[in-house]
Task: inverse folding
């Protein structure tokens, strides 16, 4: 159990109460006078009762219904102790309050044990053994001698001898609390210590009861006063909230704390037989009966311990082979099942071992939107649907956050039918909080050859199914793909490409080219887009569309983006310094969705701008529309912070993804770049011109800049200018070129001649 660190206020109150209780006990004991003793007693008694009622409520200790019983027990004990000296001749009046106090205290412990889940069979057997031993000792050593005293009611004598038994029962219940505690917080330690002091106090009263007295000295009340103080400390300490929480050890049936209870209980009959067994036959018969009962309980206790050990072992084995969230088999268990199926399925015939690898499409979106608890509920619901869809005897396993494996045996037709059954699991929406979502699953399928080729392993089948699943994801959500050997070549190619990309980053094999962004009516550059290029020393040029996705998957997009940004900003700084570009020239740099999900990106960009001496207004960061559609709270915060920094924010390839006016109004976007697919059809009729016209109207309404991408002909340029597009980018003005070529052709000193040459070429 983890101990809650007390607050300053809580620490002060329980500590002050403990010190005050000890001082009051000392004043009561030295007997400075009736008034002082009464005041000291009142401080402890009333203070403890107040603490038992008020403090647990303040700390919201659980179970809430238990603490009023403890408070009521405190009141009954207090009244019993107060009236006992005054009714020495009629002690039953004091007992009438004290005994209900024991009952209420016992109810408190039972409710606390139930809240902690501590009332188990072996705990009950332990309690019975302790009670039998304690009852036997109390009856023979205290109650019987007290009952033999003449001149007072036997009930008084018997009760005086049985009080220690009541305390032993309560102490056993208190110690039972510790069996489900990995550590002892202050409240638990104070509670158990208080019960122990009550045993001492009642034992002292029982001893004087043997001689016929019911009260002898204030010293007899010291254990009760200290016990009261400890009960108050237990209630006032902030760790009182932990009393209702269990922190169970995996197996604790024979812990040393239990042995401290059981060993004295087992040897008690033998000790009593030697010490008092010779007094009468009745004594020996009672000792024998109790001894037999304790031994029988001990045997049952041993059986209970073995059963608990076996149950713990079975539970551990189940956990090792099953997913804790869904209860499905895990990867370890289904791997063993696939090996068994491979060994049991003959290679001849049409029946083969099929392995299906499922990955949920859109699961990350659910997790990011509603949280991981909702994601867990979604996984549970998917598991239930899949379990009902697969045939009996077919193993279904969960092997990752949103990944499942299925292993079956059958022919190809049965395998394809199972794919259809799996897809039907996702046809109906899945409930998520107060709404419903529709997701799908990408499926990769692999099977044992069954054609006389060497047998495959379970690991190989799972790997092949995983590879096929990634192929399905690349083709779009909800697809299913059967593995073929050519996929291995593509996987190997991707792995080699990732390694080469890491080398390229480390050895500076990458470069940045700059494609101009011009003003339509003049052809003069207003900016440029920085584009990364990779010329592999052996493979030659590798296009960005090939290596950028690899960088995304391999976690290299961050280092790649940082490198491109620093290269581009350094070049812009040099161009501004030597007059190649003017103050109104801006540089556009791409940022990936993963980079925009990093909270530190604005701070990094700010540092880079300061390092290169480039104003933020001269930089535009380009992002895809998916950033706005899928962006979580972190991404939104990053975008707003970047805009506050002063950089421009452009939406690249606008119109091809999740285009929505709401996204443009929600995020601090400064401009959009019309995708080349809408530009290519301009001048040929159709809907492209109307789409571009609508984008321009929307941009004007929102105060956004508009850049057209992929402009290749004068016809496209003129059509764009006619609908109000002011900036363009494309091969009409040239491809991306190295920094030196860009400066020589687009230098601010050569704008006029450059524009003239451009016009001459296009006429």
Result:
């Amino acid at each position: 159990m983890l101990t809650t660190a007390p607050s300053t206020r809580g620490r002060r109150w329980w500590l002050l109460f403990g010190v005050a209780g000890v001082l009051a006990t000392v004043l009561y004991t030295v007997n400075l006078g009736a008034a002082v003793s009464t005041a000291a007693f009142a401080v402890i008694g009333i203070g403890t009762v107040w603490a038992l009622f008020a403090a647990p409520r303040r700390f919201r200790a659980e179970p809430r219904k238990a603490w009023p019983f403890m408070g009521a027990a405190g009141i009954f004990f207090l009244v019993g102790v107060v009236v006992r000296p005054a009714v020495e001749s009629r002690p039953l009046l004091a007992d009438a309050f004290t005994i209900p106090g024991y009952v209420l205290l016992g109810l408190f412990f039972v409710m606390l044990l139930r809240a902690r889940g501590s009332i188990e069979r072996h705990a009950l057997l332990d309690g019975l053994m302790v009670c039998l031993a304690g009852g036997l000792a109390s009856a023979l050593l205290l109650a019987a001698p007290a009952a033999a005293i003449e001149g007072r009611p036997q009930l008084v004598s018997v009760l005086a001898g049985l009080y220690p038994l009541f305390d032993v029962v309560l102490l056993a219940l208190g110690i039972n609390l510790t069996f489900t505690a990995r550590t002892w917080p202050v409240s638990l330690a104070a509670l158990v210590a208080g019960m122990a002091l009550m045993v001492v106090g009642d034992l002292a009263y029982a001893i004087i009861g043997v001689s016929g007295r019911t009260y002898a000295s204030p010293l007899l009340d010291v254990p009760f006063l200290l016990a009261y103080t400890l009960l108050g400390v237990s209630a006032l300490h902030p760790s009182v909230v932990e009393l209702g929480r269990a922190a169970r050890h995996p197996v604790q049936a024979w812990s040393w704390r239990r042995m401290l209870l059981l060993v004295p209980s087992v040897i008690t009959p033998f000790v009593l037989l030697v010490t008092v067994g010779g007094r009468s036959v009745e004594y020996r018969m009672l000792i024998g009966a109790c001894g037999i009962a304790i031994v029988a309980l001990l045997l049952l206790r041993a059986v209970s311990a073995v059963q608990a050990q076996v149950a713990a072992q079975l539970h551990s084995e189940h956990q090792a082979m099953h997913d804790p969230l869904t209860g499905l088999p895990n990867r370890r268990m289904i791997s063993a099942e696939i090996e068994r199926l491979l060994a049991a399925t003959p290679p001849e015939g049409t029946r083969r071992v099929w392995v299906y690898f499922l990955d949920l499409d859109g699961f990350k979106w659910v997790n990011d939107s509603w949280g991981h608890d909702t994601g867990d509920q979604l996984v549970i619901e998917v598991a239930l649907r899949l379990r009902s869809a697969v045939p009996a005897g077919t193993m279904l396993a969960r092997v990752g956050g949103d990944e499942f494996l299925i292993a079956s045996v059958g022919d190809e037709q049965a395998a394809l039918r199972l794919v259809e059954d799996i897809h039907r699991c996702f046809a109906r929406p899945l409930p998520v909080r107060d709404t419903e979502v529709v997701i799908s699953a990408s499926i990769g399928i692999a099977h044992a050859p069954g054609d006389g080729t060497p047998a495959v392993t379970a690991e190989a089948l799972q790997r092949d199914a995983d590879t096929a699943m990634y192929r399905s994801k690349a083709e779009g959500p909800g697809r299913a793909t059967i593995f073929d050997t050519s996929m291995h070549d593509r996987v190997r190619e991707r792995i080699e490409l990732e390694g080469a990309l890491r080398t390229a980053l480390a050895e500076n094999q990458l470069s940045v080219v700059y494609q101009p962004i011009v003003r339509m009516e003049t052809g003069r550059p207003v900016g440029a887009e920085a584009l990364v290029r990779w010329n592999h020393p052996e493979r030659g040029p590798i296009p960005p569309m090939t290596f950028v996705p690899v960088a995304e998957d391999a976690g290299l997009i961050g280092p790649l983006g940082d490198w491109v940004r620093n290269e581009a900003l350094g070049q812009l700084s040099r161009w501004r310094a030597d007059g190649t570009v003017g103050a109104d020239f801006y540089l556009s740099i791409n940022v990936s969705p993963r980079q925009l999900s990093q909270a530190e990106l604005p701070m990094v960009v700010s540092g880079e701008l300061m390092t290169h001496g480039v104003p933020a207004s001269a930089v535009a960061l380009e992002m895809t529309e998916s950033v706005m559609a899928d962006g979580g709270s972190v991404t939104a915060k990053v975008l707003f912070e970047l805009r506050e920094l002063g950089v421009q924010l452009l939406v690249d390839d606008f119109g091809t993804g999740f285009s929505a006016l709401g996204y443009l109004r929600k995020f601090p976007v400064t401009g959009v770049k019309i995708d080349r697919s809408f530009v290519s059809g301009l001048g040929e009729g159709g809907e492209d011109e109307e789409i571009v016209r609508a984008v321009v109207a929307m941009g004007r309404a929102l105060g956004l800049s508009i850049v057209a991408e992929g402009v290749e002909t004068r016809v496209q340029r003129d059509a764009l200018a006619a609908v109000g597009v002011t900036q363009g980018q494309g091969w009409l003005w040239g491809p991306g070129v190295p920094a030196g070529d860009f400066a020589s052709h687009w230098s601010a000193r050569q704008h006029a001649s450059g524009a003239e040459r451009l016009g001459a070429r296009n006429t």
